[in-house]
Amino acid sequence: IERIRAMFRGDAEPPIHGDQRYTREGMLMVAMTTGYRGLIAHMYGRYPEAQEKYGTAIVILQRLNEQRALAHFQRHFASLLGKRETAEAQISHAIRAAQSAQQMDIFHRARVVRADLMYKISADPDVRRRALQDIKNALRYAALSDCYRVRIEASASLARHMREGGDFDTALRYATDALTTACRYGHSLHKTLLRIEIAQILMARGDPRSGDALLEQATEIASSKGYYLALERVRRARTEHAASKPMSNRTDIPISE
Q: Looking at the whole model, is its pTM more than 0.85?
């Protein structure tokens, strides 16, 4: 496995059609296992390891011209990179790769990631309007194709953007739909993250007790399964809620004698 990885890191052209030492299927297996090890590291908060594994898998998949797998890991890599310029490049490559291979589920999931990225880096109303339209298009595709992963990710994304825009009722509707779908198909990490999203919606609309109870549930699940990503989101949700409280309601401010 390490020899194959090293072969793709070198300057010499690797035998992408296979040779006497390595088959093409063997090289593809190394790329896929490396990429999924990156995804596991990403879920558990080992971000430098995730970045290294994603990068290696993407290089091999590009050389092998495996477009669906390439788009899949480029999408995850872009999510890991967040606001950085590299994230824009990776998600653009992912969209093109998925489209060229006619892998429309990956195509729409990648466009949801790009829309979230556009929301982070631009406050331009036109940019955000186009981003929302991409997410809604993904949701329509999910309804027509019964692709539940696209439905979960698009609904969760819309819930977050509606919450941040102050439309809490619509946000709760999207988040509840995503959570119901995630529960139906047994997506444990999505279920945990969506509990956090619903908690944030409830806290923002004035129900901190219910929101806090959901955050406690999410913390217990994430701790038992080692979902560092979810624990980080819980911490961020609590910090954002504390920062949004009026000064008169804050309990973390020292009282002068």
A: no
